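JOB MANIFEST
job_type = single_chain_structure
chain_count = 1
residues = 316
[input]
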Amino acid sequence: MKYFIFILFLFDFLITSSQEKFSREISLVTDNDFYISSFKDHYYTSGVFLTYRQLLNSKNNLLDKRIFEWQIAHKMYTPFKSIVYSPMEHDRPFAGYLYIGFGVNRAFKNNQILKTSLQVGVIGSNSFARELQEFIHNIYGFKKATGWKYQIKNAFGLNFNTNYSKTVVNSKKKYFDISWINSLNLGSVITNTSSGFYTRIGFIPLQKLTNTVSFNTNLNNKHSNYFRETESFLYVKSMLNYVFYDATLQGSFLNKTSPITKKIIPLILDIEVGLKFTVNRLNFGYSFIYNSKKSKGLIYNYGEQYGRITINYLLR
């Protein structure tokens, strides 16, 4: 009986705490191949994204929400292993990308989302990727990485990004839906376009695109028609990606002195399978991500796999 009372109390706490409005959010997302295997340490080996979001008031009658986003992020790439003495063995270049980003996420009343953002940063040694990897290896007692002196050379990074999403399938009981998702990136670091589907399977009824952790639209204030809602669901995100240019592989066209560059494979398949759920002011997520191979001549030609951990904290 006492367990039943405890469960009722916990359920009541979660429901009560969900019927609130939070207009700001701090988010930490980390990508690492270490999250799926202690033996993996290659290609896209690390990503860290610290983001602040705030709901802005909007006078546009078509919009449910307009959310401002500020981000600082770092990405790191290595060959098939981080200890590679000879440059002849580098099946992809060492590379780092450090940037700050600014974006606006627009959630429309017809259950569509349009996000635009701008990234300003640097690739090369000024990204401090070498120092970051040495720091991580020291913490875990791994061997010191070699080969960073052959990394992609310094260059200015400027990228414009836009993303569009729309729900195309929605079950009557709201335990299942599919959204069509699209993205376009243009700039001096990456130029690509992708399209695919985001499928959710809920343990409880799913929230609309305009009020969900799926698309970071779960912020609300006194002008919003929504509240903070409890969410728990599995999801599958599958994207077909066409790459025109990738400076972390090809070197930047702004600095053509990189000692090691590789040719890209334009057509890439991206698959992400994960779980997301909310607890009071916190949102959690874990996912497994697979990308088909991005370059020719890779030692591991079956593609890349890594894990992603997401933690968001809501503020009033």
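[summary]
Residues 35 and 307 are 5 Å apart (CA to CA).
The chain has one domain: 21-315.
exit_status = 0
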